[in-house]
Amino acid sequence: MLSPVKPDRSIQSLNVEITSVKDKFEDPLGYLIIGAEAEPSGSMYRKFKLSQREADVASGLLNGLRTQAIAESLGISERTVKAHISNIFKKTGVSSRVEFISMFFEEKRQ
Questions:
Q1: Which residues contact 38 (CB under 8 A, 6 or more apart)?
Q2: What is the Cα–Cα distance from 88 to 65, expressed in whole angstroms?
Q3: DSSP3 helix / strand / coil % (the chain, rounded to 5)
Q4: In sequence order, which residues have a C-beta less than 8 Å from that of residue 78 and are 6 or more positions away?
Q5: Does the predicted model carry a pTM greater than 0.85?
Q6: In a structure prediction context, what are the per-residue pLDDT tens digits for the chain, which is 110 residues long?
């Protein structure tokens, strides 16, 4: 039977918690990685003047969703999502999803 243990460490900037899993004899069995959704703060939206819909799309981007998945979750077309992504990139001064995600986590650290 597995016993719960306290987290060894938390990687807050990535919203991930790593916990070691041990058996009843305290022998290590492995690691459990628990992730949480990344949500941009309201201050980020205000700083870059994102609309509510752009904020919704940004949240999808930060959680690694593909364009199609964002469109489906918001009930809009992929073309509309691409337009929102383009606007987000212009407003934030980035040119790729990777840059946007990196910028978000840098903002969060400060």
A1: 15, 59, 62, 63, 104
A2: 15
A3: 50, 15, 30
A4: 67, 68, 71
A5: no
A6: 444 444 444 334 445 455 556 666 676 666 555 454 556 667 777 889 999 999 999 988 888 889 999 999 999 999 999 999 999 999 999 999 988 888 877 766 66
